[in-house]
Amino acid sequence: MRIFVCIKQVPDSAQIRVHPVTNTIMRQGVPTIINPYDLFGLEEALRLRDRFGGEVTVMTMGPPMASDSLRKALTYGADRAVLLTDRFFAGSDTLATSYALANLIQKASENWGQPDIVFCGKQTIDGDTAQVGPGIARRLGLTQLTYVSSIDEIDPSHGTITVRRRADHGVQVLQSRLPAMITMMEGSNEIRRGRIEDALRAASAEVVQWNAAAAGITDLGHCGLRGSPTVVKKVFAPPSREEKATLVGEGAANPAAVANDLITQIFARQPVLEGDLMHAAARH
Amino acid sequence: MKQNHFDAIVVGAGPSGNAAAYTLAQRGLNVLQIERGEYAGSKNVQGAILYADALEKIIPDFRDEAPLERHIVEQRVWMMDDAGHTGMHHRSDDYNEDKPNRYTILRAQFDKWFSRCVKEAGATVIYETTVTSLMRDASGWVVGVHTDRNGEGITADVVILAEGVNGLVGRTSGLREELKPENVALAVKEMHFLPQEVIDARFNLKGNEGVVIEAMGTITEGMVGTAFLYTNRESISVGIGCMVSDFTDVGQATPHGLLDRFKAHPSIRALLEGSEIKEYAAHLIPEGGYRAIPELVGNGWLVVGDAGHFVNAVHREGSNLAMTTGRLAAETVADIILSGGSCSRHNLAAYVEAVKDSFVMKDMKKYKDIHGFLKKGRHVVDLYPRLMNRAAQTWFRVDGVDKKSKESTIVREAWRARGIGGLMGDAFKLMRAWR
């Protein structure tokens, strides 16, 4: 099986700091990580490769330092890494990003063959749009299987795939044809710890690096800021919430009475909640 | 097979490991460095002061690229009692030189840079991989390492253990004893963020100038230890450390309790005012001194840096000893391998000789008795700072008492506290230990 996995290098949102004085995001010193949602796709890709053979190519568009994330993906066991990097891509929104990545995938297909599956992250933790995967699928005419919680069956020879997809009110079992673009749900698997051989190979492997021209992208009007209709109007730190948690009835002689009193107060404000809870309690 | 054999494996990517791996790679050896952290520096904690000399001998033009915070132009040494401090300040414009001698650094950034240099020099570096044990042949000769990743072990002509104070491999492989509480200090530190201008104004600094404060006294509650405050560009590192054995045997305080008290001390509080704490870290420091240095070489292995207990606690030097021992080990190994020799204990002993010839062992040896002196004479960390502050106050207060009486009061108080025998004994023992 030939599988492409699109990843993105993102700042580790758990470690982002807001400058105490200027209130701006301090990027310096914030570690970068592979977008966590992408890892579910990568692991699924590695599992399919281990089962059916073939190869996993991991790719990204980003600044030169994004090669760190690609190298890390190699450490997990990916076979090849490709970085699309060019100043023309700076400032890309999801439209421009999916344009660039779709072209990257096409170019990679010319080099290493058409993929059976393209995995993308469900969304990124820094943009949160969940648009790039579907954008790629649309541009390349791939079947879209988003929010997949598991791949139940796959038949490479017939080019069919059956997946479970999380929908608004339940789980859909979908059968479709390959090639497909799949985004995996979080928790659907757990990224492996690469073998020592993978770690060694990754440390000295060459990350394939293409600029726009090398990836065959000539229409730069679709790229970067120029190709991005989305405009960031304003960036602000959300105000901290007004209400604060308070400690009530500390050291009270009768905590149960304090709790009872509180619940009565809450129910007085939330009669529907009371009804629901009473109803639920009655059923048990 | 070929891919899994290296000339040398360096375990750890701290100052000693990076110095060793860089030097080996520069000499053209095929070297593998294995770091357990997610990146070099992710596990490393230090105050941190970088002493230029040791790094200059490895990367002469490091100043052009290394992430440095401030160069030190002022050193303050404080003896503290509960109300204040008495101290010595040394500041000189001479330190504003083309190639400053000491810098404050942020280890997470600095180590990353150093690690990048190692890779650019040609070493293979893998992260998030823990060396679990040494691979030995039938005769016990070390021939490689096993890691916590699935797969085969990796072989090499020599393994350089730069695994830090708490190094697992050396201990589990029986090269080194379990750490003794009386040979290791536990230090905690916090990073306090403040705008650069505020730090400049508070410490009378301009440009990249920086200040270092080292303090001892009642702040450690009778335990043997010191506290520090270092100015970085936009933050202040503040910390305190004491011998682990003292935390259990002498003091009642917890490390962070001591740090909270130090930060609230009238001499320190105002320096940190309005800052925001962003990081909290703790680390062990091997402070057992000369007598705690373990076996340094064997067939197929050598030990460098903190793992070799190379810390000069009196002068707060460690990373420079680490880099120097790392470099010396690498030079020894390179000489042996490039001349077709084997990395036997006998051949590797040249490393031990090189360390002995350097400032590293000379300094370690000079202070070999300080450790024992402090262990027996804990009063020096508590009583003498108290006396000193009392004496200073008696001396400087103008209160109608004549100077001669003041002098007698000062002498009498010292006398009463320690007795003539005690005072002379302490002086004698300290002098001996200092020599």
UniProtKB/TrEMBL annotation, chain A:
Pfam families: ETF (PF01012)
Domain Electron transfer flavoprotein alpha/beta-subunit N-terminal: 22-219
GO molecular function: electron transfer activity
Keyword annotations: Electron transport, Transport
Protein name as catalogued: Electron transfer flavoprotein subunit beta/FixA family protein
Species whose genome carries this gene: Gluconacetobacter johannae
TrEMBL record, chain B:
Keywords: FAD, Flavoprotein, Oxidoreductase
Signal peptide positions on this chain: none
Span of domain FixC-like C-terminal: 371-435
Keyword ATP-binding: no
UniProt cofactor(s): FAD
Pfam families named among the record's database cross-references: ETF-QO_FixC_C, FAD_oxidored
Residues annotated as transmembrane: none
Keyword Flavoprotein: yes
GO molecular function: FAD binding; oxidoreductase activity
InterPro entries: FAD/NAD-bd_sf, FixC-like, FixC-like_C
PANTHER family listed in its UniProt record: ELECTRON TRANSFER FLAVOPROTEIN-QUINONE OXIDOREDUCTASE YDIS-RELATED
Family: Belongs to the ETF-QO/FixC family.
Function: Part of an electron transfer system.
Name of the molecule in the record: Protein FixC
